[in-house]
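Bumping my old thread because nobody answered last time. Still need a sequence for this structure:
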């Protein structure tokens, strides 16, 4: 996979039920050279995403008919959109909303009111980080796991295991440096980036979910330090 760094070629889907917000975001994105499509609810967002194939989706959480969380879940099930970045836009400030957003596969979480210049900076940071990840080793075969970054798939002893995007990235990051301990802050920086403000417990939640799916004996907790992938 190759991330496109030329903004004139990057496609952004803006999804929000407030016309004023859509208009402001569309104007600022197009001014920066992005190619923009819009949708006013979750149902239309999924249909538009399938046809438009965006590189990035700006997705409101609170919408009629179908909220952003369900929309994100549906989009993450579409193979052609597995590499698309998703940024949630929301007026909700509760901690559980942020955790739920990242659990379902979001790459960033921005609260309203939205500051266009700050948003554009966060978008640019996402694509820079994506470009660096594109240079990483595509396949890791370790113990009985086969981790394929090009297709975001994991096989354990030949059995396919489905992981959401962030869970996959945590597993891939730890597995490429087996027996090396990484603190929560290091994982936050390398998986979410310095520009994204994420709660430290989000790492714990993702690690727990990965363990539930691949087994408890691969990722070890080093008390007071962090996590490591066990080589043996």
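Sorry it took so long. Here it is:
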């Amino acid at each position: 996979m190759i991330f496109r760094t030329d903004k004139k070629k990057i496609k952004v889907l803006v999804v929000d039920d407030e016309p004023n917000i859509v208009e402001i975001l569309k104007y600022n994105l197009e001014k920066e050279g992005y190619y923009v499509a819009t949708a006013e609810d979750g149902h239309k967002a999924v249909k538009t995403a399938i046809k438009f194939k965006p590189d990035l989706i700006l997705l409101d959480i609170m919408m009629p008919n179908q909220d952003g969380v369900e929309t994100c879940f549906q989009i993450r099930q579409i193979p052609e959109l597995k590499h698309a970045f998703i940024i949630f836009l929301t007026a909700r400030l509760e901690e559980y909303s942020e955790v739920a957003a990242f659990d379902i596969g979001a790459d960033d979480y921005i609260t309203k009111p939205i500051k266009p210049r700050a948003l554009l900076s966060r978008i640019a940071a996402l694509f820079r980080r994506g470009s660096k990840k594109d240079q990483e080793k595509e396949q890791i075969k370790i113990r009985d796991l086969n981790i394929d970054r090009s297709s975001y798939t994991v096989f354990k002893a030949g059995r396919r295991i489905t992981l959401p995007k962030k869970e996959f990235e945590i597993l891939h990051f730890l597995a490429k440096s087996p027996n090396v301990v990484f603190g929560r802050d290091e994982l936050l920086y390398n998986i979410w980036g310095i520009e994204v403000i994420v709660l430290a417990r989000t790492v714990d939640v993702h690690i727990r979910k990965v363990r539930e799916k691949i087994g408890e004996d691969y990722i070890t907790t080093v008390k007071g330090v962090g996590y490591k992938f066990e080589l043996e």
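The chain has a mean pLDDT of 85. Let me know if any region looks off to you.
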